[in-house]
Specification:
2 strands; single chain; mainly alpha; 71% helix; Mg chelatase-related protein C-terminal domain-containing protein; Mg_chelat-rel_C
């Protein structure tokens, strides 16, 4: 997915933006990490049968945790 497709199919609601912003400030993530988190969250939402236009915050928590584990932040 390119940037436009990410915005269209994996958009964030207000609560999701806050959650992702907090994760970026805490973990020091890059733009590439953002795209990876968005793609994983969209995949989780698809598997859960969520609507296409917006992903709810619970869909964002897992990929953020996965990224934290990858960076060695969460033990």
């Amino acid at each position: 997915m390119n940037g436009e497709e990410l915005r269209r199919y994996a958009g964030l609601d207000r609560e999701g933006r806050k959650l992702l912003q907090l994760a970026f400030e805490t973990l020091g993530l890059s733009a590439h990490a953002y795209n990876r988190i968005v793609k994983v969250a969209r995949t989780i939402a698809d598997l859960a049968g969520a609507e296409q236009s917006r992903s709810r915050p619970p869909m964002w928590r897992k990929p953020i945790r996965y990224r934290a584990l990858d960076r060695g932040v969460v033990g």
